[in-house]
Amino acid sequence: MAPMNKNNAGEPWWADGQGAEPTPVGCCSVCPVASGCPLRSLSAVRCAVTGDQPPPPPPVITPDLAEAVGQDPAVAMAETVSWADVTAAVAEQVPGRDGGGNDPDWGRLQPVRNLLSIAVVSFLPVGGTTAARWVADSISSGGITAPVLTPLGFVLAGTGAVFLGQLVPGFPGFVCELAWKALALTGRGLVRLVRSPRGWILTRPALWAAGIGVLIVSWRAATHFLTGAS
């Protein structure tokens, strides 16, 4: 009876003349953390995380240390990987330009102005409290519009009284007229300051005080919900 394999008598009949494909062996086959790496590939010749070829050697850990902490040596070895180095390596692989080919302009974040504004509204005491805590207390007692409507109400009440005081005859009217001129001059100066390049001195702290105040209120609500603390 003729063999069923027509190509090679030394091969089994079910092979049909096709040898098994060789298993690709890459750098991930010797990596100690390959089992938990989402970028592993059996055919990779360069580490997708660190970019090294071949990949860096695994960290050295003695069995005594693993036994001292009650861990398996493989687990202890994986935990000793320097994730700071991995993060730096990944950052190096990220393109340094945007979609238009422009270099990133980190100066647009204005870290000096923002950090200074955060420090002012968070630590500078004004009337026994800070600006951020005052915003948080106002929101807690009067609602989300209280930090805006409360100061606006005082300003309108004061300016309205001065404006109506000009109608009073005699010395009180004269004083109110001078005060109204001073208020108008101050208002024009504030508008010019806000619209000038130095306007951030007023606007930036106000924005950060509002944002940090909302965060404080949210933290208080979360703490009260989770722990029942008042």
Keywords:
230 residues, elongated, mainly alpha
> Total number of helical segments?
8
Helix content: 40-55%
Decide which structural class fits the backbone: mainly alpha
| Average pLDDT taken over every residue | 77
| Strand percentage | under 5%
Shape, please? elongated
Task: Describe this protein's structure.
- There is one protein chain.
- By secondary structure, this protein is mostly helical.
- Helix content is 53%, strand content 0%.
- α5 packs across α8.
- The chain is elongated.
- The chain starts with 62 loop residues before the first helix and ends with a helix.
Short description:
The protein is mainly alpha-helical and 230 residues long. 53% of the residues lie in helices and 0% in strands.
Topology:
Layout: H1 63-68, H2 73-79, H3 83-93, H4 111-123, H5 131-142, H6 146-165, H7 171-195, H8 200-227
Helix pairs in contact: 4-8, 5-8, 6-7
